[in-house]
Amino acid sequence: MNILTFFVVIPLLTITGIILVKDIKRVKLVASIGMGLQLLLAALLIVLYVMQRRAGLTEEMLFIKDFVWFKSLNIHFALGVDGISVAMIALTSVVVFAGIFASWEMKFLTKEFFVSLILLATGVFGFFISIDLFTMFLFYELAVIPMYLLIGVWGSGPKEYSAMKLTLMLMGASAILLVGILGIYFHSAPDGEPLTFNILSISNYVIPIQAQRVFFPMTFIGFGVLGALFPFHTWSPDGHSSAPTAVSMLHAGVLMKLGGYGAFRVAIFLMPEAAKEMSWIFIILTSISVVYGAFGAMMQKDLKYINAYSSVSHCGLVLFAILMMNKTAMTGAILQMISHGLMTALFFALIGMIYGRTHTRLINEMGGLMKIIPFLSVCYVIAGLASLGLPGLSGFVAEMTIFVGAFQHPDLFHRLTTIIAITSIVITAVYILRVIAILLLGPSENTHYEQMNDAKWYEKISTVTLIACVAAIGLAPFWLSNMIGTSMQPVIDKILAVNPF
Amino acid sequence: MMRHELLLAVAAIFILTSEIFTDPARKKSISLFSIVLFSVVTIAGFLPVKLTGTLFGGMYVSSNVSTLMKNILNIGVLLVMIQSVTWLRKDENSDRVSEYFILIMSTLIGMDFMISAGHFLMFYLGLELATIPVAALAAFEKYKNKSAEAGIKLILMSALSTGVLLYGLSMIYGTTGSLYFFEVSQHFPGFNLQILGFIFFFSGMAFKISIVPFHLWTADVYEGAPVNITSYLSVISKGAAIFILIIVLYAIFPSIMATWQKTILVTSILTMTIGNLFAIRQQNIKRFLAFSSISQAGYILVGMVGGSQLGMASVIYYILVYIFSNLGAFGVVTAISNATGKENIDDYNGLYKTNPKLSLIMMLALFSLAGIPPLAGFFGKFFLFTAAAEKGFYFLVLIAVINTIISLYYYLLVVKAMFINKNDDPIANFRSDFPTRSALLLCVAGIFVTGFASVIFEYIKGLSFGN
Question: In this complex, which of B372, B389, B458 lies closest to A186 when CB atoms are compared?
Fold first, then answer.
C-alpha cells in the first residue's frame, strides 16, 4: 500500500476508534495515539522523500498512485507529493497533534468534538496529497464543513453568527472555485484528446489564454478567500475569535494554508499566462491585506482578534509572495506558510490556555502574567518573537526570503508594493511588543489571578512540540528550503517558458 | 417487456383480494403483505432479462433506460412504503391500509407507462393514471381540513395543467399529423405554431415538476398532505416527471434544441433562486422541504440544459441521489411527526441532545441535499454542473453554485436548530419502530454508497443517450 493512502486512512480509523470507545479518557487516548502515529508517519515520509531524491529520482511528484474512479469523466483518485506538499503534510500533522493536546480539557460532547476535529484534519491531509483537481476539491469542502459545527457548538462569543459567516463565505468561495475547476477541466487537453483533472497532465498543456483570463481569477479568488485575501478576509477575525482553541489552531495554522497552496498549485501553476497578466490586481489586494491586517491587529484588545488580524497580514504575505512568481519569493511563500502555521498555532494554543485560567481575553484586564505563569509566558514571548521575525526563529527565514525574492523585480510597481509590504514588519513589532508589555510584564491587575497554576503536562506537550519546530526551522532552514526549492523548479520553468521576464 | 407494469397490476389485485379475506381486526398486517409483494416486484425489475422492443404498434417502448428509470422509482416507492407503516398503524388510518397501497401502486403504473410511452395518447393515459390517485392520497387524512384542501388543490391544479398540456399536444398533432414520438420528431422543423405547442407542453410538465412559475400549488399541498404523501410527491412524482421530460426533450424535440435550451435556462434560474429564497423564510418543516425540493428541480434542469449524454446520465443519477437524500430527511420528519405531531423547525431545537441518531441522519440528508462531500449529493451536483459546463453554460453554473450556497444557509439553519440551539422543552427521546429505522438506515446507506460507488454512475452513463 502506498504510504500516502495512510494519511487518509489513519484519521478515518481514528474517527472509527473514537466512535467505538465509551468514556472520555479513552476518546482522548485514541485521538492522541492516532494523531501521534500520523506525526510519525509524516516524519517517515520526509525521510523517505529525501532518500528518494538523494537516490536521484527527478520526477516532479514522488509516491504517485493512481486509482481510476469515474472512468467516463476521467476522474481519478490520484496521489503524489513533491517537496512542497511533504512540507505542508508535516506542518499539518504537527499542528493537529498539538491541537489534540491543547483541547485536552474539552468536557462538553468530547467525542463529537474530536470526531469533527479529525474529520477536518482528514480533509486537509487529503487535499495536500491529491494531484487530481476533483479529489482536491472534494477534500477542500470536506475540510470546511466541520468548521460550522466546531465553531457553532463549542465556540464562544457570537459563535452562531461567526460560524455561519465563515461557512458561507468559504463555501461561497468554493462555489466560485468549482466553476474555475470545471473551466480548467474542459480546456485541459487539445481537441480530441481525453479531458483530465490531473494537475501534472494539465501542466504539460497550455490552456488557451481566453479561457485562462476567465478562469484564473475565479480559481485564484476561490482559493484566495481561504487565504484571507482582502476584501474577503472578514470571516477570519470573527471565525478565529469564536472558535475553540484547537479549532483556531487548525484553522489559522493549516486550513488557511489550503488557500495559499491551492492558489499556487492550481491557479498559478496551471494558468501562468493569465497570472502574469492579472497579478497586478491581486498584488495590490494582497499588499492591502498585509498592511491592513497589521494595523487591524494593532487596534485590537482581544488576544484572539489580535492574532486573527495578524494571520490576515501574514497570510496576505503568502499570497503576495506567490504572485511575485520567481523562485526565491515563491519558496519564501511556502516557508512563510509553514512558519506562520506553526507560530499561529502556538499563539492560539497559548491564548486558549491563558483564557482557560483568567476567563478573559482582553489584554487590559490582565497583566504581570510572567511572574504567575512563567512557562506559558515564555512560550508566548517566543511565539511573539517568531512572529515579528527575529533571526533564529522561523519567521525571519520566511520573511527574509520573500522580500529578497520580491525585490528582484526591477520595475517600480513591484518594488513599491514590496516596500509597502515590508512596512508591515514594523507594525508587527508594535503590536507584538505591546501585547507582551501589557500582558506579561505590566503590573498584575487582579489578585485573583495569582492563584493560577502553570502549564500542565498536556499543555507542555502541545507547546513544546510547536516551539521545537519553530526553532528547528529558524536554526537550520536550508534543508527545508532546499527541499521546497527543488520542487519549485518545475513551476518556475513553466512560468519562464511561457512568459520570460 | 411490460414486467414492471404487469407485476404491479398483479400485486395491486392481490392486495385488493387479500383485503376481502382479512379479518377487520388484523388489517394492519396488510401493510407487511404489501411491502413484501412490492419488494418482490422491485427485485423482479432488476432481474437481468434483456427485453427491449415495442408493443401495441409502437405505442409502448421498452428500452434499457426506461427499465433503469422504473427501477429507480421502485426503490424510492419501496422506501416510502416502509416509512409509512408506522403512520398506517394509527387507529384512524388502519381501516384503509389496502387502499393506500393500491393507490400508490396504480400511480406508479401510470408513471411507468408514461416513461415507456411511444405515443402521446399512451403518455396522456399514464399521466392521468399517475395524477388522480395521488390526489386521493393527498386527501387521505380526510378528518383533517388541511389534508382535504391539499387533495382538492392538487386535483384542480392537475386538471388545469393537463388541459394546458393537451392544448399543446393538439397543436403538435395539428402541425405534424401524428402522435407517435418518432414521427413527431421527424416532422418538427420548429415553426411558430410548433414552438407554441412545445411551450404549452412544457408548461404542463412544469406543473408536475413544480418549476417556477408553475410552482404555486406545491407548498400548500405539501404542507396539507400527510408526510408520507408529501415525500412521495416531492420525490417519486417529481422524479418521474423529470424522467419523462428528459426523454421527451431528447427524443422528440432535438430539432428545436436551441429553443428548449433557452426555456430551460430561464426556468432553471428562476426555479433555483425563487425556491431557495422562499425556503429561507419557512417555519413549517414540510413547507421548508417543499421549497427546497423546488430549488432541487432547478438544479436538475441545469443538468438537462446541455442536451448531452452526460446531461441525461447526471440527471438520472441525481434523481437516485435525491431519492435517498430527500427520503432520509422526510423519514426523520415522519418519525418525529408520528411520535410527537410536531412539524415546526423550532420544535427541532436541541434535538441532538435527546435524539442524537435522528439528528445525525437529518444532518447527513440535508448535507447531501446541499451537496457537501463525501455524501452522494456532492457527486450528483458536481456531475449536473459538469454536464452544463460541457456545453459552455458557465454562467448558469455560476448562478447554480451561488444558489447552492443560499441553500446551504437554510439547511444549516435546521442543523443549527438541532445541534446548537438550546431548548427547555425539547422533543423527548423516543425509539422509533423497526420499519422506520430500517428505512432510514437504507437511506443513509444510499447517501454514502451512491456517491463513492462509481459503478452506479458509469452504469447509468452507459445506458443514457444524447448528443
Answer: B389
Which positions in chain B touch A168 (Cβ < 8 Å)? 405, 408-409
Q: Bridge partners of A62? A: A81
Decide if A153 and B389 are in contact by the 8 Å CB cutoff.
no
- A134 to chain B, any CB pair closer than 8 A? The answer is yes
Residue A333 vs residues A72, A329, A403, B250: alpha-carbon distances, Å:
37, 6, 10, 51
Which domain covers residue A361, as residue numbers? 3-498
DSSP secondary structure, A66-80, as one string: EEEEEGGGTEEEEEE
A156 to chain B, closest Cα gap in Å: 12
Q: Does A70 touch chain B (CB under 8 A)?
A: yes
Cβ-defined contact of A72 to B458 (cutoff 8 Å): yes
A132: helix, coil or strand? strand
Return the HEC string of A5-62.
HHHHHHHHHHHHHHHHCCCHHHHHHHHHHHHHHHHHHHHHHHHHHHHHHHCCCCCCCE
Of residues A70, A145, A152, nearest to B454 (C-beta):
A70
Confidence tier at B165 by pLDDT (50, 70, 90): very high
Does the structure show a pLDDT above 90 at B76?
yes
Instruction: Give residue-wise pLDDT tens across range A349-387.
Output: 888 888 888 887 888 777 777 777 888 888 888 888 888
> Could you tell me if B374 lies within 8 Å of chain A, comparing CB atoms?
yes
Q: Is residue B283 one of the residues assigned to a domain?
A: yes
User: Residue range A307-317: average pLDDT?
Assistant: 88
Please give the tally of structural domains in chain B.
Answer: 1
Question: Cα(B386)–Cα(A71) distance, rounded to whole angstroms?
Answer: 14
pLDDT tens for each residue of A136-166: 999 998 888 888 888 888 888 788 888 888 8
Angle at A198 between CA A194 and CA A201, to 5 degrees: 70
Q: Determine the average pLDDT of the residues in A218-235.
A: 87
| Number of domains forming the structure of chain A | 1
CB-based contact, B395 to chain A, within 8 Å: no
The string of pLDDT tens digits covering residues A248-268 is: 888 888 888 888 898 888 888
**What percent of chain A shows pLDDT beyond 70?**
98
For residue B174, being part of any structural domain is answered with: no
* Full domain range(s) for residue B440: 253-467
- Inspect the interface and report whether the beta carbons of B386 and A73 lie closer than 8 Å: yes
The rounded Cα B181 to chain-centroid distance in angstroms is 24
User: pLDDT tens digit string along A385-435?
Assistant: 888 888 878 888 888 888 888 888 888 888 888 888 888 888 888 888 888
Q: Which of B401, B409, B461 sits opposite A178 (nearest CB)?
A: B401
Q: Is B367 on the interface with A (CB under 8 A)?
A: yes
Whole-structure pTM value: 0.92
H or E, element range at A87: helix A83-102
Q: How far is A169 from chain B (nearest CA, A)?
A: 9
Average pLDDT, chain B: 88
Phi, psi of B284 (to 5 degrees): -80, 130
Contacts of A470 (CB under 8 A, 6+ apart): A339, A342, A343, A346, A382, A383, A386, A393, A394
DSSP characters over A425-436: HHHHHHHHHHHI
B284 secondary structure, DSSP code: B
Least confident of A89-93, A478-482, B194-198: A478-482
Q: What is the ipTM of this complex?
A: 0.89
The reply to whether A211 touches chain B by the CB within 8 Å rule is no
Distance, in angstroms, between B196 CA and closest chain A CA? 34
Any domain includes B339: yes
Is the CB of residue A375 less than 8 Å away from at least one CB of chain B? no
For the stretch B123-159, pLDDT in tens is: 999 998 998 899 888 888 888 888 888 889 899 989 9
Tell me, yes or no, whether B390 lies in a domain. yes
- Minimal-distance CA residue of chain B relative to A154: B420
> CB A171 to CB B408 under 8 A?
yes
> Can you give the pLDDT at residue B366?
92
